[in-house]
Known about the structure:
two-stranded antiparallel ribbon; Beta Polymerase, domain 2; alpha+beta; six-stranded mixed β-sheet; Hypothetical protein af1432
Amino acid sequence: MNQEPNPQNKKNTALTGFALPAIVEEIRPHAAFPEACLVGGVIRDSLLGRPVLDIDIVLRGSGVDAARAVANALGAAFYPLDAERGIGRVILVRGKSRYTLDFAALRESSIGQDLALRDFTVNAIALPLSPGAALIDPMHGERDVKDSILRACSPRAIADDPVRSIRAIRLATQLGFRIEKETKEQCRAGASMLGTISAERIRDEVFRILSGRKVAAAIHSLASLGLLRVILPETAGLAGGQPGGPDGNGVWEHTLAALEKLEIVCDTLAREPGAGRAGDPAMGLARARLGRFQASLAEHLARPLNDERPLRGLLFLAAILHDAAKPETRSINAQGEVHFLGHEQLGADWALHRATALRFSNDEADFISKIVRNHMRPLLLQSSPPVTRRAVFRFFRATGPCGVAVSLFFLADTLANLAAETGADKWQAAVETAYSLLEGYFERPEEMIRPTPLLTGDDLIRDFRLSPGPQIGELLDALREAQAAGEVGSREDAVALVERGLGRK
């Protein structure tokens, strides 16, 4: 399957258009370390003509010291990423681009031997930072880049680090590569070994899938190789043909369809103008009605709750789990109708447990769980139009910071459930429901989401001679809701509302 590494196997690239990112020339004068080489994704993506923001450099000596020196020279941020293994990180911002530069010590006595330890041949290509140097390609990775093949560097590449099985799916899906047969079998075998990998490493690799392109295709591949049921055991019952999706489709098929639609919705409504699916009437209607929120949605989904994990990836994880509890809650009534009563509540509990087990932060786990718990709520609003100010307030009171994500997923879930020939009216109603929610959140928050209190708890205690206790909170909640509904607009109105609530007027 693989070739023996030859550290002398140096060659000029045969692919046309090979060009390193311009930032390399800025780095080069400050990275004259012994045997310093660009490696991995920066070479692969440059060969493919893809944009490069992550740059890996190996060298003889301490990567931490090298990163610190480069950061000092360029006035960039420095982090000792892994001092024990000699890895340092530099964050370099140029214009609107944010580059991550990781410096690592060579693991072997030569660059050729170091490359042989890597995961896939397309990542086992190096280029010395010295001017005029040629590619070092002992595993013939350039050929595999040209042929769009993902091939393990050795028969034990994935057994040595089972998280590479997840990475293989991510790279193949996002690059449009075919996983070589023996490498695919390594991935399949790697499922049983994922239990030896830290939850944090699995989380990070899966999150790269969730934050990338073609999420549905990647999740389907993870499932087909037996990896998904290890990573997200809550999904184990989905692919068994259980009815519950539209037109007799199974829950699993519906889940994949919802993921596909969610990517289209996010591309159309939460990216730069012009993104999305031109010629798609449904998304054309959505873009015309909801396009005013595009910049706000893009900024919202790019925001992290903790660390550097954007909300968009958390939304996609919730989407995978949104119907996970349907097989468990499936019932048939006397009329032969299938129901999944309480699947959103049970699914939310499962989602919270899995997100916690994968070492997401408490805020992130709560965010994912709340999306699952509330994913049916916009449908209830749609069933009794129009969506009132009071309904918008109650929606965001229940969903909190995940309300925008719920609104976007609602659109995707609706699309996944609609038959093209019968769904126009339902789709338009869904878009109008989403419009009401997004308008309240982004454009009228002080009116409809979090109105400025007209009375405080101290006011109630002092002016109405009340004692501290639950009654105070109940009165303040009722007052906030009345303000959001537009029924109370002044302190006098607020006083009158409280008096009525106390039965004094």
